[in-house]
Amino acid sequence: MVSDGDRRRPVLRCQWRRRLRSKREYDEDDVRVRPARSSRPRTRQRPRHDDAAPAFVIAVDRGRYTCYLADEDRAVAAMRARELGRRAVVVGDRVQVVGDITGSAGSLARIVRISDRTSVLTRTADDVEDTVEGRQERVIVANAEQLVIVSALADPPPRTGFIDRCLVAAYDAEIEPLLCLTKADLAGPEQLLDYYAELDLPHVLCRPDGPLDPLLDALRGRLSVMVGHSGVGKSTLVNRLVPDALRAVGDVSKVGKGRHTSSSAVALPLPDDAGWIVDTPGVRSFGLAHVTEDSLLHGFPDLVEASTKCPPNCDHTGTSGGCGLDQLVAAGGADPRRLASYRRLLALRAGDDPTRGAEEGTRAGDDDPGE
Length: 371
Fold this sequence. Notes:
By secondary structure, this protein is of the alpha/beta class. The chain has helices at about 15-25, 130-135, 160-170, 190-195, 215-220, 235-240, 295-300, 300-305, 325-330, 335-350; strands spanning about 55-60, 65-70, 75-80, 95-100, 110-115, 120-125, 135-140, 145-150, 175-180, 205, 225-230, 265-270, 275-280.
């Protein structure tokens, strides 16, 4: 039996906390002191970097940039300086670097300035600008003077839809196009060249056992970017042009599509200082969401003049009637396949693609433009 003396009043929780706090001794650690403002005022003045060395960006890899210093004839690793903000640095950029430019192991320079670009070749992952992929523009290369569209004549067959996309991107970026046809030992170029007869498009033929003199002449003294479907022999061609490139190559799959071998864009110098080529990863699509409708039409120079005969506010889709492009084709002034290719790109921009899936195996010269 519990006596009254052993019984104790329950201590409330608030009283217990107050009792512990009263027994605790305070010291200077209990006082929060807000740090004083820095005595050094902020300034918008940046270093002039008068000693910055001119360089040329030849590779980009996860925030590190390989820059070639022509005056020193060596490549250095660099990072982007904070004063550049969010401005991107891409292959082909002309920049100025400071810091450790010895190029020794472990050295790291800083890119402090980016020169104005003369051209920017861009692509998107989708054709519809309202989609997430369509809004994500990817700069392939800057300051390119020539776009070399590499297409195989067989294995895999040429895709005129892809070539049309590259031509639109080239004309939009004001870059001269060059059609490079590989595997000319397997098929002739007549059917493909007939498709572009109205454009007077410059082209070169490449055979595995033939010389590359015509291609070297076209590349001489220029910064050229090479694009093409996977499996068309682009990496093999680059290895022949630049023996020290050692770009990975792969075989074509049984369904006629290539496998990705190049994983990143890289600028490579041609022998005897003949120029530079930029090898890009093989792609299966070349989105044009960044190209306006007017620029899209100018990507088809053989159709532009006829558009002046269209009625006001003509959308060139042919649904409203009276389109000057239809009149041009009816009069025999343009290839109907070219008009079909243009209108398919228009439909893709609007989010409508009635021919997707039907063109994957289409060869040049078939009714469908192909991609």
